[in-house]
Amino acid sequence: MSLSQEYFQRALKVIPGGVHSPVRAFKSVGGQPLFFRSATGAYLESVEGKKYLDFCQSFGPHLLGHRDEEIAQAVHETVDLAWSFGACEPYSLELAEWIVEKIPWIENIRFVNSGTEAVMSALRLARAATGRSKILKFEGCYHGHVDALLVKSGSGLAGVSAADSAGLDPLQVQQTLVASLDDENSVEQIFNQHGSDIAVVIIEPLPANFGLLVQRETFLQKIFSIAKKNGSLILFDEVISGFRVGLGGMAERLNLIPDLVTYGKVIGGGFPVGAYAGKKSLMDFVAPVGPVYQAGTLSANPVGMVAGLTTLKKAHRLNLFTDLENRTNRFITQINQLCEAKNWPLQAISMGSLFWLHDKTSSTIRALKDIPSSQSKTFKAIFHGCLEQGIYLAPSGFEVGFISAAHTTDLLDQVVQKLESVGQKIFHGK
């Protein structure tokens, strides 16, 4: 029994399922999870002492790679000063000022501890600002484990939702309407029935939790048009895409400015963080200025604030967003050329420095219904094949991969070579 297996058996006795977040349990890919003891740059090191080239990167926060030296120095200096205050401090102020200065449509920002907390708070704010109760979300977008958003399409009637987790209040579930991605008609139908009750439309402008579902710009523009016509707010969930696909996230790429936006991951430099932001006229509804209560003992933790600001400043200084996108495009092109040459039923797609491997399709996958039914089976084989080659992907065929500044072109070229060996075994049995 390996050391990881020993740890997992111990964990099963004291932790639900042995993990603190479900995807870590390897249920989607089979087998038992690896336990890691350290991480540096593009690599993870397991408790057994084996190194793995990491494309998970803690699901996105490590834009510069694990434990970047510049961030590490800033973190160590801050830890020597304080761990947390529960009081006002300059570190969150500096990060807030930097973000507000660089992103012109953000006038106020409030830091919290996670993406889930950011979304929860933004929804409360939207309801207060509009005086309305209903939320419209999209099937195929994930916004954390907020009760109001752990819902899926229900009976087939326009907008009807059903609980996607046990323990949800049925009355709260009814306040959330569900539309289909890549389907303007579903949005129009829902607004025709409920338009005057919808406080906010929440969407990942780049859905990246059920695969990488790149949306048509015309579809997103239509959502904006319908929402504005009906007096509903638009909330962009950019917890993944924010400061990852560009300095201004998808809002900047699309030139679509939401009323509210949520951030996470990159803005904490690898430490727990979340944020919601928008125009001052909306954010003034938040206590202590306004009537919307939201608080947090460890919100704006100084270590995370410093790590986040150091990350963003360095990425901006090095024009890293463009560099990573070019590097990712090159990597994805090589993978697709390999798959074409070998006639493998596999392809890759990317946006910014995010990428996704999926079963080959004749058209772009934009909604859950477009994902091939064989995706899980194929990815399971790819995941374990890559693991044998010292490559760590997120353990689910519906999670995306992340490329960091530590993933050099030489390393990515080596990965393509290793993928050739993996594919030969999977598709040709050699």
SSE succession: HEEEHHEHEEEHEHEHEHEEHHHEEHEEH
The percent range for helix content is 25-40%
CATH topology of the largest domain: Aspartate Aminotransferase, domain 2
Oligomer: single chain
Work out the helix count: 13
Task: Look at the structure and name the CATH superfamily of the largest domain.
Answer: Type I PLP-dependent aspartate aminotransferase-like (Major domain)
The SS-based structural class is alpha/beta
What is the CATH first-level class name of the largest domain?
Answer: Alpha Beta
Number of self-contained structural domains: 2
The stretches of 5 or more residues where confidence is low (pLDDT under 50) are none
Overall shape: it is globular
The amount of beta strand, in percent, is 15-25%
**What's the CATH architecture of the largest domain?**
3-Layer(aba) Sandwich
